[in-house]
Structure formats: structure tokens, C-alpha cells
């Protein structure tokens, strides 16, 4: 067998041959095969947010290479997998838990040896797992040899996760920094002198102050634009405007997103992270969909609002933050308080200066101006040199529509019409079809063996929408948007109805 020092040197050289972890794994594979039984090996870590083993990279003899693949762990096994920590390499074939997981990774017929990876800050960063077809292919000598390469692979995995985290933070910060000028330049508030006159007057009054603002209104009414307007007219306008969609962040991630975390605070926390409150220091933080925040998270948010200090996850140091807080919701928070779904003390803190944005159907005088505004804006986006005209009689038909999706629905309709009628007059015929569909009475239906219960009907409808979206739940044209409910609410209902196995958040 090869000398251990030579083996360590050669493997370290190959691991360090590329900053891309998948290339480093593949560069090492053929060398390892010359010295140990090996048909495949994986570099993996635990993804606690998705309750899965995340395969960062894999190389195999049949050249099937994977990068960033998830292996979901059954709910009854996840607590055990999450809590297990190894400090030394171990043969996994005799492990009872591994035998249940092996079929998920499709290696149940192989000898399996796992080498745990750790750093000074993270005691269980991930693992190297080696596979060789057949039984009892690994022995004590192989374990001793492979134990020597845990350190270079640990550093490679830690660096890869740190780069990934840095890339995510840069992207997030870039989006946050770009959001204010984007809205200022391209989405001026239409209706500020008519249907939104009272709203804009209230915004102008509160903007110079540091008072907390609660913006309410239906989905798609433009609550974020009002928040932007308040920030850009305030003394904090030179500071950051940080938006947080509270409903889109899983409950177990909200603390890290809002308040940050220290290096090593949990598996995967390979670098210190500043939360949204720290990023917003000297500016404004906009907490959208505040009504979707879990009760436990509400307690921690209340503490920050009271003290104006944050404590990162995994740390004990209190950090001063100077931020203005603007929140928004389409929920009736007062009713949620009475139903014990929202904390009363937090509601008092947020409801200092409420502003209600009316739905589009209550400010129909703005619709003609909005249509022309979106035609001009979307024409520029689509590269249409001369914005098309609107066919006679069309405006009146659009004004009479009830617009359940509010301004956002109108914007999307205009863009669709511009694409479908490139270079022609805009007639919005699809709106006529929508009116017809809504006006046509549907025949009451029930199966021959009796009516379905509510869960069965809900399950059938969600499944139908998931097929329409090809399994996509979150984001534009995802199932949550089509159903008109929050992403986390939909996930909860799918879990209750046993539909999670069809989820593909592509």
C-alpha cells in the first residue's frame, strides 16, 4: 500500500488543483482508484433547511457526475441523521440507520466507508463517502489511509460553502441596493394626485419622521412602492432600503436572515453573516407580508424593535442598529390578534402610523392613466420603438373589470397584450374571454359515490395547479401565486394533504 505521507501530499495537490469543488473531486478520483477499492465517492453535507443530504460533488467509474444533488431523508429518520456526529472514519454497512438510507442513494449493494469532515469552527461540516461494489471491500488499512485526507477535503468543502454564501450575499445586497433607483426611475406612483391622493398625503406627512409605518392593502396594490416613496422622501434616503419578504423565508431561517449568524453557529454556517437589520443600518428595513411571520419569530422581532439591538444566531454580543421599520401586509392583523395568530404587543408596536392602500376597483379613475403608463413602460422593456394605440371602446371595458389582482394584474395584462399583438392596436380580447368565463355558471358536480370532503377537493385542486406549473411552487407563475396564497401556507397545506412528494421547486 502507498506511503501515507506520499498519499496525503498527492491527494492534497489534486484537491487544490481547482477552486471549483466538482473539478477537484474529479481530479482526485482516478488517483484514489489506484490505491483503494473505489467505484464512486461523494462529498456531501447536511442541509438542515430541506432535511436532506446535499451531495456537493460526486465522481464515479461510470462517469456519472453529480453536482449539488439533494437526497431527501424520511421525516422519521431526519432527527437521528441530524444529531449523529462522527469524529473518526467508519464502515457504514453495519450501521442500522445507514442501511435504511442506502437505498435512497442507490448504493445498498456496495461497501461503504465514510470519512467525517470538520473544521475548528464546525464539528460536523460534512463527509467523504467511498463506495466499492461488493461486500467487505474495505479494511482497517483503508480506514487509516483515508483518514489522512480528511483535512484537505474539509478545507475545500469549507471554502466552497463560504464562496457560495458570499455569492448569495453579494447577489442579495446588489438586488437590495438596486431596488430603490429601479422603482424611482421606472415605476413612479400613478394616481398620486387622484385615487391615491389620501395615501400619498399620509406618506408625505410621515416620511420626514422615524415613526414605524404599517402599510395594509390587498395583494398587488403597490404597498412596496409606497414604502419606497416614504424612504426616498426621508432623511434616510442616502441609506440602504432593505426589503424582506417574511412569507417567503422558512421559519427555521428567519432568525438568520433578519439578525445574521456567527461563523459555526450551525451546520453550513462557514462564515459570519450580517442580517437584514445590520444591512439596513442608517436606512430603512421593509418587512413585507409581516402577517405570515411565525409567532416565535414575532417574539424576537418585538425584542429588536424595543431595544434597537440585534444578537446574531450563535452569538452573545448585542449590536446596535439604527433603522426605520416599515411593514406591510394583506392580512387583517387586528383579527389575527383576536384569533391569537399575531402578537398583540407586536401589533401595537407596528401600528403606529397605518396607511391603507385601496384596491384598484375602488380607484377606477386611475385605470386609464395606469394603462397608458404600463404601455409606455413595457414598450421600452420589450424594445417596441413606437408604443401601439388602444382600440376604441377598450378603455371602458377595462375600467368596468373588477381587477382581483389589482395593479399587478393590470401590468401583466398589458405586457401580455403587447407581446400577442406586436405592432397592432391593443384590443385586450383575452379580457373578454375572462369575463365570459367568470359569467358562465358552472354546473354543480359531485362524484357518483357521494360528495368529497374538503381535504379531498383541496388536494385535487392543488394537484391540478401543480401539474399546470410543472411542480413549481414558489416565484412568478408558481402554484402559490396562481392559487393566491403565501408560499409557506401552500407548503403547509401540501404537507398536511400528503402532496409534498410531488414538489419540484424548479
Automatic annotation (TrEMBL):
CDD domains: AAA. GO terms for biological process: regulation of DNA-templated transcription. This is AAA family ATPase. One of its GO terms (molecular function) is ATP binding. Keywords: Activator, ATP-binding, DNA-binding, Nucleotide-binding, Transcription, Transcription regulation. Residues 189-419 form the Sigma-54 factor interaction domain. InterPro entries: AAA+_ATPase (IPR003593), AAA_lid_NorR (IPR058031), GAF-like_dom_sf (IPR029016), Homeodomain-like_sf (IPR009057), P-loop_NTPase (IPR027417), Sigma_54_int (IPR002078), Sigma_54_int_dom_ATP-bd_1 (IPR025662), Sigma_54_int_dom_ATP-bd_2 (IPR025943). It holds the Pfam family AAA_lid_14.
Amino acid at each position: 500500500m502507498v506511503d501515507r505521507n506520499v498519499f496525503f501530499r498527492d491527494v492534497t495537490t489534486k484537491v487544490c488543483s481547482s477552486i471549483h469543488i466538482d473539478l477537484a473531486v474529479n481530479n482526485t478520483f482516478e488517483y484514489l482508484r489506484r490505491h483503494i477499492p473505489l467505484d464512486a465517492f461523494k462529498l456531501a453535507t447536511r442541509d438542515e433547511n430541506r432535511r436532506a443530504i446535499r451531495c456537493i460533488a460526486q465522481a464515479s467509474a461510470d462517469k456519472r457526475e453529480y453536482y449539488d444533488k439533494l437526497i431527501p431523508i424520511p421525516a422519521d429518520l431526519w432527527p437521528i441523521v441530524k444529531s449523529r456526529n462522527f469524529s473518526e472514519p467508519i464502515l457504514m454497512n453495519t450501521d442500522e440507520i445507514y442501511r435504511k438510507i442506502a437505498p435512497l442513494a442507490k448504493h445498498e449493494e456496495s461497501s461503504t466507508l465514510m470519512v467525517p469532515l470538520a473544521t475548528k469552527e464546525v464539528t460536523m461540516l460534512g463527509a467523504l463517502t467511498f463506495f466499492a461494489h461488493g461486500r467487505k471491500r474495505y479494511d482497517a488499512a483503508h480506514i487509516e489511509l483515508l483518514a489522512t485526507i480528511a483535512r484537505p477535503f474539509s478545507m475545500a468543502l469549507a471554502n466552497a460553502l463560504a464562496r457560495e454564501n458570499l455569492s448569495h450575499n453579494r447577489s442579495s445586497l446588489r438586488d437590495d441596493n438596486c431596488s430603490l433607483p429601479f422603482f424611482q426611475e421606472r415605476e413612479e406612483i400613478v394616481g398620486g394626485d387622484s385615487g391615491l391622493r389620501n395615501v400619498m398625503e399620509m406618506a408625505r406627512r410621515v416620511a420626514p419622521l422615524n415613526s414605524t409605518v404599517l402599510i395594509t392593502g390587498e395583494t398587488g396594490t403597490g404597498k412596496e412602492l409606497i414604502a419606497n416613496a416614504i424612504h426616498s422622501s426621508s432623511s434616510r434616503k442616502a441609506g440602504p432600503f432593505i426589503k424582506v419578504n417574511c412569507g417567503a423565508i422558512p421559519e427555521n431561517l428567519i432568525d438568520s436572515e433578519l439578525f445574521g449568524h456567527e461563523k459555526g453557529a450551525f451546520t453550513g454556517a462557514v462564515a459570519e453573516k450580517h442580517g437584514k437589520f445590520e444591512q439596513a443600518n442608517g436606512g430603512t428595513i421593509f418587512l413585507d407580508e409581516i402577517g405570515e411571520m411565525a409567532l416565535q419569530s414575532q417574539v424576537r422581532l418585538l425584542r429588536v424593535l424595543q431595544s434597537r439591538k440585534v444578537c446574531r444566531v450563535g452569538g452573545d454580543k448585542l449590536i446596535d442598529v439604527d433603522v426605520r421599520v416599515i411593514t406591510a401586509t394583506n392580512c387583517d392583523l387586528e383579527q389575527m390578534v383576536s384569533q391569537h395568530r399575531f402578537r398583540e404587543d407586536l401589533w401595537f408596536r407596528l401600528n403606529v402610523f397605518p396607511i391603507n392602500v385601496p384596491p384598484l376597483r375602488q380607484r377606477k379613475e386611475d385605470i386609464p392613466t395606469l394603462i397608458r403608463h404600463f404601455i409606455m413602460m413595457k414598450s421600452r422593456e420589450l424594445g417596441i420603438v413606437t408604443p401601439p394605440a388602444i382600440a376604441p371602446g377598450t378603455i371602458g371595458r377595462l375600467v368596468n373589470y373588477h381587477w382581483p389582482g389589482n395593479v399587478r394584474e393590470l401590468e401583466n395584462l398589458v405586457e401580455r397584450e403587447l407581446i400577442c399583438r406586436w405592432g397592432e392596436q391593443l384590443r385586450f380580447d383575452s379580457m373578454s374571454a375572462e369575463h365570459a368565463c367568470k359569467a358562465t355558471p358552472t354546473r354543480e358536480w359531485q362524484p357518483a359515490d357521494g360528495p368529497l370532503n374538503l381535504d379531498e377537493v383541496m388536494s385535487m385542486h392543488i394537484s391540478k395547479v401543480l401539474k399546470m406549473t410543472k411542480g413549481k411552487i414558489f416565484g412568478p407563475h408558481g402554484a402559490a401565486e396562481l392559487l393566491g396564497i403565501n408560499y409557506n401556507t401552500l407548503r403547509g397545506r401540501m404537507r398536511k394533504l400528503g402532496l409534498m412528494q410531488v414538489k419540484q421547486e424548479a
